[in-house]
Amino acid sequence: MKELNKYLQSHSSSEMHPAEIAKILKGLNDKDFSEAIKLVPKDLVGDVALALPDRYFDDVVENFNAEELSHAVSELESDDQLEFMQELEDVDEDKASEVFHKLDAEDKHEIAKLKKYDEDQAGAYMQLEVFTAKEDEIVQDVIKRFARLRKENELENVQNLFIVDSNNRLLYTVGLDDLLIFDFSKTIKENIEQSEESFEPKSARDTEDIKEVVNYFKEYDLSVMPVVNDEGILVGRITSDDIYDIINEHATEQMYNLAGVDDEAEEDEDVLKATKKRATWLGINLLTAIAASLVIGLFSETINSMVALAVLMPIVASMGGNAGTQSLTVVVRQLALGEISQTDAFRTIKKEVVISLMNGLLFAVVMGIIAWLWFHIPMLGVVIGLSMIINLLMAGFFGAMIPLLLKILGIDPAIGSTVILTTVTDVVGFFSFLALAKYILL
Amino acid sequence: MKELNKYLQSHSSSEMHPAEIAKILKGLNDKDFSEAIKLVPKDLVGDVALALPDRYFDDVVENFNAEELSHAVSELESDDQLEFMQELEDVDEDKASEVFHKLDAEDKHEIAKLKKYDEDQAGAYMQLEVFTAKEDEIVQDVIKRFARLRKENELENVQNLFIVDSNNRLLYTVGLDDLLIFDFSKTIKENIEQSEESFEPKSARDTEDIKEVVNYFKEYDLSVMPVVNDEGILVGRITSDDIYDIINEHATEQMYNLAGVDDEAEEDEDVLKATKKRATWLGINLLTAIAASLVIGLFSETINSMVALAVLMPIVASMGGNAGTQSLTVVVRQLALGEISQTDAFRTIKKEVVISLMNGLLFAVVMGIIAWLWFHIPMLGVVIGLSMIINLLMAGFFGAMIPLLLKILGIDPAIGSTVILTTVTDVVGFFSFLALAKYILL
Q1: Which has the closest alpha carbon to A312: A418, A386, A396?
Q2: What is the C-alpha to C-alpha distance for residues A329 and A417, in angstroms, rounded to an integer?
Q3: What was the pLDDT predicted at A1?
Q4: Is the separation of the CB atoms in A385 and A359 below 8 Å?
Q5: Domain A2-116's class?
Q6: CB distance B329–A259 less than 8 Å?
Q7: How many CB pairs under 8 A join A and B?
Q8: Which of A162, A175, B25, B225 is the residue whose CA sits 20 to 30 A from B275?
Q9: What residues does B175 pair with on adjacent strands?
Q10: Which residues of B touch A181 (CB under 8 A)?
Q11: How close B94 gets to chain A, by Cα (Å)?
């Protein structure tokens, strides 16, 4: 509380940054938070709400009425307006529609426009605010218009001037660094005439997969990209700060998918939702664990005649599961980063098989000796060693195969691959160990 | 090959993009690659080498002599020069020193300067090329200088003008969007006088942790940030394209650490290196698996008198491991994204315990019924149900505790946490199930 007051008093409103305010708010307990959030300048409430982790969102909105929230939304850029309204709908649908009705016509229209897009489409991430000019405008006039828009706070973070035709079709992109060295007394057309090609825009389609757009940003070192619709009409722009968030979100999604966790459910305040989603994956895991147990059940008699097998069998399964997870994680991640292409499939599988075979041989010897010394049965060492080699070999092969196959089938290689893999390593681990024991030892 | 020729012939050299060339090269087999790489315009070889995945690097450099490589390096920006030279050192130290000696004095000096920094320091990621001006310069003159530098290809991707004093100490940052609406006939000082605060630079220290710098970029929606040394002297800048790469690298590192894989070893062409690193984690896993087996060994007699226990015990361990991994992954990731702060520790643990307790109860009932029906022993259902609840509860608690504790100890929460967790869930799973069986069933 004190810290927030100090910050608010020592900064003029133009100097305050939502991220700083959010950082102070995050350190407060629930009671202080409710009081402190009311001190936040009304113009910044929207930005602060979005800068805080998702779970704070309902704490923010319950402290303001629809009128205040509507003002907060009107101060946001279009993509943030959409994000705010969507989070508000999740928390309180009635309040959301009340807030929406209080917005002015333009904001309503823009939010509706962005809402059309799916969350994997580029359009869902764009800002509608762009700085445009016509080819035949004189540079000086364009800059005057720019100065006016800047003063009215209509444009933030501008890095490019987009040149459009009379139908708003995107023709060229001019970086401000180029604009600065143009001849201001001439038209844009005259300025770019000699090197038109270098102003050709690298643009994204609004319906394009956002993952592709992120790849453009990375490969071409971009910090902003115009977005056009199917007629080539400029509809918005995506900026680097969107890309930071998307890269992080995709990585989170991938890690969560590998662990059998749903990213959207986890971000929600609702614990029951996360519990249900996790239960789904645990349920699938239960089925595969039962399958592995059925394999053990086939060898009840073998185990009955040598209890050492029951003691040792989880080691084989555990080592296979771990080695497989190593391969799987590397292949899933490299597929996502585009480091493995379709033509690399064979090379990838070979590499993973070689690595796991080498480690299989290493740990076969280590564990073989341990088992021999532990139970004083030399052949038990041979059995666990052989099954270790078999299981780690399978682990490497399937750790690479499963994600590659899912990718070819058009399924996200991170989803479900861990469960499939551990089914293989459990079944192969238990079966190879117990079957070898049955035929070699007994 | 044909595709590359077509691309090279249809584009003037100023239009060609290294990312496009890299994309075509990636699709080729080894033989075609060696021929095709020689067709790449000499000025672009450095950029193309860096745009390709790491494992192609030695294929690129072995096709050029030291003279050609030295030219390729001289065409790169300073941060890319360092990256190129470091990769070259990894591949061929002799060639690297030969290439280095052929560089001009300025390039040598810049590479040496950047090399001083650790890979977790901001300085290691910066470009040394910056566009600066003094306070008392007239804007018009600054722009003229800028135009000249642009023509000489000395400056790329400029978004800000950095204002420095006579000692090169950073005073202000002026975005090109602000510069564009300045009065060009006045000095910079006169232009910024009325709103000096808004030009105060948000800068990074060269020795600062790069993770902190990435957080600034995300929180403040930046696309470029100046870097200063301990005396406040401007030494370089970090741009959004560096941030994309760093965010991705950190996410990869985290995923790999959770799976017991070393990110640097995996990127290397050397399979033996990756195998060794993976073997280290598999070795640790073997020790914990043996610990779990020792627990099973304590109950040999119990298992001997009821083999159903050997069949069912892996299910309890497997469910615990999975539920624990769910909790662990969520906590590790949210810690990394700054969504969990120190004060949140208790809330986080409570949430994970509640979720796993609910799922524990659910799967206790499900598995209890299955075990009862499978082996026709009602109390066996009770035993597996109780141990399921105990193990999932521990899984949730330790899944949250382990990363939080590692974080407090200053250790990366992703490193080793999976192994510690599965040790807990294996030991608790086997022990609770077999001990309950011993006292309830026998």
Answers
A1: A386
A2: 10
A3: 67
A4: no
A5: mainly alpha
A6: yes
A7: 315
A8: B25
A9: B160
A10: 143, 146-147, 150
A11: 28
Cβ contacts (< 8 Å) between B285 and chain A: which residues?
318-319, 322
Residue range B291-342, pLDDT digits in tens: 999 999 999 999 999 999 999 999 999 999 999 999 999 999 999 988 887 6
Strand segments, DSSP code E, in B140-293 are 160-164, 170-175, 204-205, 224-228, 234-239
Task: Convert the pLDDT of each residue in B371-380 to its tens digit.
Answer: 999 999 999 9
User: How many CB atoms sit inside 10 A of residue A130's CB?
Assistant: 21
Of B86, B27, B91, B24, nearest in space to B64 by CA: B91
User: Under a CB-based contact definition with an 8 Å cutoff, are residues A126 and A205 in contact?
Assistant: no
Using a CB-CB distance cutoff of 8 angstroms, which residues of chain B are in contact with residue A414?
none
**Residue in B267, B283, B284, B266 with CA at minimum distance from that of residue B275:** B266
CB contact A285 to B (< 8 Å):
yes
Amino acid identity for residue B355 in this structure: I
Looking at CA atoms only, how far is residue B421 from chain A in angstroms?
13
CA distances from B232 to B79, B130, B210 (A): 21, 15, 18
Contacts 24+ apart (CB under 8 A), A30-39: A30/A59, A32/A1, A33/A59, A34/A59, A34/A63, A35/A1, A36/A1, A36/A4, A37/A63, A38/A63, A39/A4, A39/A5, A39/A8
Q: What is the pLDDT of residue A16?
A: 77
| Angle of the A78-91 helix axis to the A105-115 helix axis, nearest 10 | 80
**CATH of segment(s) A132-246:** 3.10.580.10
Tell me, rounded to whole angstroms, the distance of Cα A282 from its chain centroid: 23
- Assign B1 a pLDDT band (cuts: 50, 70, 90): low
A151: nearest CA partner in chain B: B181
Whether the CB of B298 is below 8 Å from some CB of chain A: the reply is: no
Identity (one letter) of the amino acid at B322? N
Helix (H, G, I), strand (E, B) or coil at A161: strand
CA-closest candidate to residue B184, choices B145, B146, B142: B142
Q: Is B314 on the interface with A (CB under 8 A)?
A: yes
CA distance B106 to chain A (A): 25
Q: Which CATH class, in words, describes the domain spanning B132-247?
A: alpha beta
Please tell me the distance in Å from B97's CA to the nearest CA on chain A. 29
CA B427 and chain centroid, separation: 32
CATH of range A260-441; options 3.40.50.300, 1.10.357.20, 3.30.70.250, 2.60.40.1120: 1.10.357.20
Tell me the pLDDT of chain A averaged across its residues. 92
Domain ranges, ordered by start, for chain B: 2-116, 132-247, 260-441
Interface predicted TM-score (ipTM): 0.90
Tell me the residues of chain B between 70 and 129 that have a Cβ less than 8 Å away from chain A: none
Nearest Cα residue in chain A from B272: A355
Assess A330–B contact: CB distance below 8 Å, yes or no.
Answer: yes
Chain A residue closest to B254 (CA)?
Answer: A255
Count other C-beta atoms under 10 Å from residue A182's C-beta: 20
Q: Do B314 and A289 touch (CB under 8 A)?
A: yes
